């Protein structure tokens, strides 16, 4: 086998593993420890994410968590892009960072719901798609005042935005994978929305 394909495979593997490990760093838990706040896994909704940190620690802690979670998705993808990777490698890196947040190896594979990390990864993959997603999230949030509903609607539309703005089958499949997991991670929110008890 030629040396170039082997080196490409190795690079893809290294970038993907690194993305997962970076995604596994829980910004919420680290932020709460530094700011001497309760563990987000045991307070509020028990979810180590920005929304729950907002509940238990306020806006400053939530902002640090949100930015950190977004960077976990964004930076690995930007590194992959800098190596002039193909769509498959970029998609694998984005999914790995996202999975790291959902199932972090450093925290017993119990992570957050992944909205900010998914957005950061998609921002690195395609800024036009991320802009469309941001507008969708803000529109739904403004209209309904329900954060989880905004995330669900945005996740559902993400594959369509990739189809519309990128035309890459690989990236569309990536978006479908991320969207399915986002909806799955929000299943308790969906139940509360249907019951009319969601915050």
Structure description:
The protein is mostly helical and 199 residues long. The chain has one domain (3-195). 76% of the residues lie in helices and 0% in strands. The chain has helices at residues 3-23, 27-34, 50-57, 59-82, 87-102, 115-125, 127-144, 147-165, 169-185, 187-195. The longest helix is centred in the middle third of the chain and has 24 residues, at 59-82. It is globular, with a radius of gyration of 17 Å. The model has no long low-confidence stretch (mean pLDDT 93).
Primary descriptors:
single chain, 199 residues, mainly alpha, 10 helices
Quick take:
76% of the residues lie in helices and 0% in strands.
Q: What is the residue-mean pLDDT, rounded to a whole number?
A: 93
**How many beta-strand elements?**
0
Number of helices: 10
Q: Estimate what percentage of residues fall within beta strands.
A: under 5%
Shape: globular
Multimeric status of the protein: single chain
Give the biggest sheet.
none
* CA-atom Rg in angstroms: 17 Å
Q: What class, by secondary structure content? A: mainly alpha
Order of helices and strands: HHHHHHHHHH
Distance between the termini: 56 Å
């Amino acid at each position: 086998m030629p040396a170039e394909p082997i080196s490409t495979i190795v690079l893809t593997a290294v970038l993907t593993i690194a993305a997962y490990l970076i995604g596994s760093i829980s910004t919420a838990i680290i932020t709460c420890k530094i700011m001497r706040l309760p563990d987000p896994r045991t307070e509020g909704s028990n979810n180590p994410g920005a929304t729950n940190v907002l509940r238990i620690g306020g806006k400053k802690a939530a902002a640090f968590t949100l930015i950190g979670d977004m960077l976990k998705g964004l930076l690995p993808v930007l590194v992959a892009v800098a190596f002039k990777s193909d769509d498959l490698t970029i998609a694998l890196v984005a999914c790995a960072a996202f999975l790291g947040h959902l199932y972090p190896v450093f925290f017993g594979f119990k992570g957050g719901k992944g909205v900010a990390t998914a957005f950061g990864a998609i921002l690195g993959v395609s800024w036009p798609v991320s802009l469309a997603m941001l507008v969708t999230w803000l529109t739904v949030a403004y209209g309904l005042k329900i954060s989880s509903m905004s995330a669900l609607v945005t996740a559902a539309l993400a594959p369509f935005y990739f189809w519309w703005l990128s035309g890459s089958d690989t990236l569309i499949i990536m978006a479908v994978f991320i969207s399915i997991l986002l909806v799955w991670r929000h299943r308790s929110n969906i139940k509360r929305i249907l019951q009319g008890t969601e915050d």
